[in-house]
Amino acid sequence: xxxxxxxxxxxxxxxxxxxxxxxxxxxxxxxxxxxxxxxxxxxxxxxxxxxxxxxxxxxxxxxxxxxxxxxxxxxxxxxxxxxxxxxxxxxxxxxxxxxxxxxxxxxxxxxxxxxxxxxxxxxxxxxxxxxxxxxxxxxxxxxxxxxxxxxxxxxxxxxxxxxxxxxxxxxxxxxxxxxxxxx
Length: 183
What we know:
- This protein is α/β, with parallel strands linked by helices.
- It has helices spanning 6-17, 32-39, 53-59, 84-90, 115-126, 165-173, and strands at residues 25-28, 46-50, 65-69, 73-75, 80-82, 95-101, 104-106, 109-112, 128-134, 146-149, 156-159, 177-180.
- The strands form three sheets. The chain has a seven-stranded parallel beta sheet with strand order 3-2-1-6-9-11-12, sandwiched between helices. A three-stranded antiparallel beta sheet has the order 7-8-10, covered by helices on one side.
- Helix 2 links the parallel strand 1 (25-28) and strand 2.
- Helix 1 (6-17) crosses helix 2 (32-39) and helix 2 runs parallel beside helix 3.
């Protein structure tokens, strides 16, 4: 997943990293674009909570960062933690920002291929003051089995291209800010 459109992911990650302020408490999902974002951070004094083994490992040695890894079952393919225990761990936290890599985004909201994954992301969104979705242009209009959150739950989308007219109108109607990463 990390190798797919790496230049687009890096642009999105760098734009997203500029949204993070010193001292922000961050909740991060296991997407590769989110991992690239925290690796690009130029800020400090963060508490980072994640279910991603790769993200935890890549930022654990950064100065000014405290990493908290959620407990649960390890998915060997995605190198992330999931399950009932992970959901229970989330109940103890409240953060400034959650960063989520999108599987798909439709005019009705953020979607996922997997109900368990979607439920975990939904719970993450509930724990944050600001919801930031990282989505390359291929995710717009991509419909999937499970709706994670309606567009009204999303504050901001960082992407590599402007969405099409129908999607742009739905985002504007729901007051979702769209940031397009520069080349």
